[in-house]
Specification:
Elements: E1 8-10, E2 13-15, E3 20-21, H1 37-48, E4 53-55, E5 59-60, E6 72-73, H2 80-92, E7 97-98
Parallel strand pairs: 3-4, 4-7, 5-6
Antiparallel strand pairs: 1-2
Helix pairs in contact: 1-2
Length: 99
């Protein structure tokens, strides 16, 4: 496997290896764009499963940008708490997550 499983630094991020889970559309957020327990558990499994960097699924930053149901919403302050919980739980499993 060579360098694939070695630690690496990307800017100020320290990754446990060089595997990256690319952004996809899971459709696992509620109608307000808040991550559901199902989505958080998926990201926890990826973090525990030795993915070096998890890039979240399809996300929108304004209501007009929501193209599909279940997208991750970064458009309102009401979503901050659930997003923070998602990040904390991924970090607790040793993962790094980015939008």
């Amino acid at each position: 496997m060579g360098k694939l499983l070695e630690k690496i630094e990307l800017g100020n991020l320290e990754l446990k290896n060089r595997t990256i889970r690319s952004a996809t559309w899971e459709g696992m957020c509620d109608k307000e764009g808040k991550p559901t327990e199902r989505l958080i558990e998926l990201y926890e499994e990826l973090a525990q499963g030795e993915v070096g960097l998890i890039i979240t699924g399809y996300a929108y930053v304004s209501p007009e940008g929501q193209q599909l149901p279940g997208m991750l919403g970064l458009h309102q302050d009401e979503n901050i708490e659930s997003l923070q919980r998602m990040v904390e739980r991924v970090k607790a499993k040793g993962g790094v997550i980015a939008v």
